[in-house]
Amino acid sequence: MDRAGKEVLVSSLNDVFRNTGVVVVAHYSGLTVAQIQKLRREMKKAGASVKVAKNRLVKIALDGTEVQSITSYLKGPTILLYSQDPVAAPKVAMAFAKEHDKLVVLGGAMGRTALNADGVKALATMPSLDELRAKLVGLIQAPATKIAQVSTAPAAKLARVFGAYANRDQAA
After folding, report:
1. What's 3-126's CATH class?
2. Which uninterrupted H or E stretch holds 24?
3. Which residue from 61, 64, 56 is spatially nearest to 82, judged by alpha carbons?
4. Global pTM?
5. Cβ contact 88:47 at 8 Å
6. Fewer CB within 10 Å of terminal CB in the chain, N or C?
């Protein structure tokens, strides 16, 4: 890669680090190309991304960003997993690491907060933003549905009583 290509890569990585919610760093030594492609597909499906770049260029791109704390993890063959949703990238990374022991999660960063491997694992167990939104909508809708059920319950009970009397007269 020539100097201009490296400058473009560093610039794009810097934009990623400034605008991302979470970055996870892992070692990928021993994974096949097919396994890395599978990881890329799973990350894309979850709304996250994967980047493999030279550690030296990544360190340059990290200068002045909030996730600069991941610099210590950039040794050896590393892969960067990142997403806007603070849970998406860790969740997919940990699930993939369970299936493939060659992917070793080293740590990461969520904003200014540095995460070790246990921190990434804790993030992976949390519900995603979409799941939290669904729970919130369910909680908001629950009182309204209960009020509707309570208001229609007396009429329904009365209709069942009338139906029972009607069926009793027909049976006799």
Report:
1. alpha beta
2. strand 22-27
3. 61
4. 0.72
5. yes
6. C
